[in-house]
Write a structure and sequence with these properties.
Shape: elongated
Helix content: 55-70%
Domain Serine/threonine-protein phosphatase 4 regulatory subunit 3-like central: 66-407
Family: Belongs to the SMEK family.
Oligomer: single chain
InterPro entries: ARM-type_fold, P4R3-like_central_dom, PH-like_dom_sf, PP4R3-like
Biased composition (Acidic residues): 444-455, 567-581
Biased composition (Polar residues): 495-524, 546-555
Distance between the termini: 81 Å
Radius of gyration: 45 Å
Largest sheet: 4 strands, antiparallel
Strand content: 5-15%
Structural class: alpha+beta
Number of strands: 6
Number of helices: 26
Length: 594
């Protein structure tokens, strides 16, 4: 039987209208004979004692809902009431935290109804009040409750803070007309302030709050409808009302050439701020771009490259690397105008010859500029920092940047040369497969009588090809190839002339065209050579070799003869095939052998 029990916290309302903690237990349902019906049972998780036994009455469902709403209303009222005792408020906050934790075990539809009820009853305004209190334990519990709400539905939280900002703007406008000043305290700004003012040496609370802020500003979980886009509206609100609060510690600590405060806790806090700003650079568009350029944020961030804490300097470098990775010319012009490579080059030189993460990260950034061929940044780096970097020879990154720069200058000075390179890169000779088939068919249909011996076979497409399209390098290559083939033929024929006998053989040319020649055809133009009429080795002459003698195949490569292969003496079929080949023209014979 499946165990359907769930862990719950049991509170009972006493005579003084105060909630008493009865303990934690597991709730289940079952038939109770004493109550004559199905009942809810809660047994303590410590000893199994019965904490609650209540009969389920379907007729009281609406009444139960009314009681729940009244209970939540009283709960939030007591939490926000300044007269509430601190110990009592802490108990109520912990109860609400347990209540939200219990909701994680509900089915999705029940969990949706639960959080919608909390939202309708005013949980977010109540949290805003609680987060503004001085009690750290109460604020910590309120932060946990807020995290449940953000994880469940960040759009609900964003909608609340935007409505709150709109109401504050309306109130501020009226107060301005009455010449009264007002301090706007928004829920999301409270979260940022608590992140900045975290007193924990490990900044555990700040890390948690930074994660919640990243979820709220993440465009991936923002809704888009036909009438409005949540991304546009919320990011516009965030950069108008909240970004200055987030960047305040960064701007306050980078007014000079080095960080004003460089202790470990401040460095950790600034690293968290930079992590969130880097996330904004990656996921936001013109909002963060306008803010960085108008507020000169990158220059302030690069001041942190002089920090004694390596992790903070790397965070600053990563922020700039993310900006360069966008390959946005607006950013590039801003970097060049403010000479924002100077802090990076200075940090690289100060690092010296040490092979560490800082060294690798800086080289990787310049390597990215070289590989991606970001022309404006390449020229800026070489023109302004080459003297400082030219002696770095353990990597080829900076010399590669110099080469890129020189190539750019060469293209600018000789625009025709650049266009010619493009033509050479894009020039290709392509022939359709169907054209090749048609040419082969035409060649086989050609009458032998129409062709003279030794006449070169030229395809129709080659005949019609314009001579201007044939490039000089190709022509020179073909001439060298033909000259090499002719030299190999002469070497082979000289080798054959040195022998006393001329058995039938096959000649394989290194040009790739496999032309098989018999002894008669190969020696036809060599008077007095073996195999010519009247020579001792010719057929019908005295001393001629009969056909049934063993034949030898000479295999040649570029270096001449390689080896000999003997064939059986009684291979008469091969002799008949060779006799048939003798009757074919030389060009078609080469075609068949290939």
């Amino acid at each position: 039987m499946t165990d359907t029990r769930r862990r719950v916290k049991v509170y009972t309302l006493n005579e003084d209208r105060q909630w008493d903690d009865r303990g934690t237990g597991h709730v289940s349902s079952g038939y109770v004979e004493r109550l004559k019906g199905m009942s809810l049972l809660v047994r303590a998780e410590s000893d199994g004692s019965l904490l609650l036994e209540s009969k389920i009455n379907p007729n009281t469902a609406y009444q139960k809902q009314q009681e729940d709403e009244k209970f939540l209303t009283d709960l939030f009222a007591q939490l926000t009431d300044e007269a509430t005792d601190e110990e009592k408020r802490q108990e109520l906050v912990n109860f609400l935290k347990e209540f939200c934790a219990f909701s994680q075990t509900l089915q999705p539809q029940n969990r949706d109804a639960f959080f919608k009820t909390l939202s309708n009853m005013g949980i977010l305004p109540a949290l805003e009040v609680i987060l503004g209190m001085d009690d750290t334990q109460v604020r910590s519990a309120a932060t946990d409750i807020f995290s449940y709400l953000v994880e469940y539905n960040p759009s609900m939280v964003r909608e609340f803070v935007m409505q709150e900002a709109q109401q504050n703007d309306d109130v501020s406008k009226k107060l301005t007309e009455q010449k009264i000043t007002s301090k706007d305290i928004l829920l999301i700004n409270l979260i940022i302030e608590h992140m900045i003012c975290d007193t924990d040496p490990e900044l555990g609370g700040a890390v948690q709050l930074m994660g919640l802020l990243r979820t709220l500003v993440d465009p991936e979980n923002m809704l888009a409808t036909a009438n409005k886009t949540e991304k546009t509206e919320f990011l516009g609100f965030f950069y108008k009302h909240c970004m200055h609060v987030l960047t305040a510690p960064l701007l306050a600590n980078t007014t000079e050439d080095k960080p004003s405060k460089d202790d470990f806790q401040t460095a950790q806090l600034l690293a968290l701020v930079l992590e969130l700003l880097t996330f904004c650079v990656e996921h936001h568009t013109y909002h963060i771009k306008n803010y960085i350029i108008n507020k000169d944020i990158l220059r302030r961030v690069l001041v942190l490259m002089a920090s004694k804490h390596a992790f903070l300097a790397l965070c600053a470098l990563r922020f700039k690397r993310k900006i360069i990775g966008l390959k946005d010319e607006f950013y590039n012009r801003y970097i060049m105008k403010s000479f924002l490579f100077e802090p990076v080059v200075k940090a690289f030189l100060n690092n010296g010859s040490r092979y560490n993460l800082m060294n690798s990260a800086i080289i990787e950034m310049f390597e990215f500029i070289r590989v991606e061929d970001i022309k404006s940044l390449t020229a800026h780096v070489i023109e302004n920092y080459w003297k400082a970097l030219e002696d770095v020879d353990y990597v080829q990154t900076f010399k590669g940047l110099k080469l890129r720069f020189e190539q750019q200058r060469e293209r600018q000075d000789n625009p025709k040369l650049d266009s010619m390179r493009s033509i050479l890169r894009n020039h290709r000779y392509r022939r359709d497969a169907r054209t090749l088939e048609d040419e082969e068919e035409m060649w086989f249909n050609t009458d032998e009588d129409d062709m003279e011996d030794g006449e070169a076979v030229v395809s129709p497409s080659d005949k019609t090809k314009n001579d201007d399209d044939i490039m000089d390098p190709i022509s020179k290559f073909m001439e060298r190839k033909k000259l090499k083939e002719s030299e190999e033929k002469e070497v082979l024929l000289k080798t054959n002339l040195s022998g006393r006998q001329s058995p039938s053989f096959k000649l394989s040319l290194s040009s790739g065209t496999k032309t098989n020649l018999t002894s008669q055809s190969s020696a036809a133009n060599l008077p007095g050579s073996p195999g010519s009429p009247g020579s001792p080795g010719s057929p019908g002459s005295p001393g001629s070799i009969p056909k049934n003698t063993s034949q030898t195949a000479a295999i040649t490569t570029k270096g001449g003869l390689v080896g000999l292969v003997d064939y059986p003496d009684d291979d008469d079929d091969d002799d008949e095939d060779e006799d048939k080949e003798d009757t074919l023209p030389l060009s078609k014979k080469a075609k068949f052998d290939s």
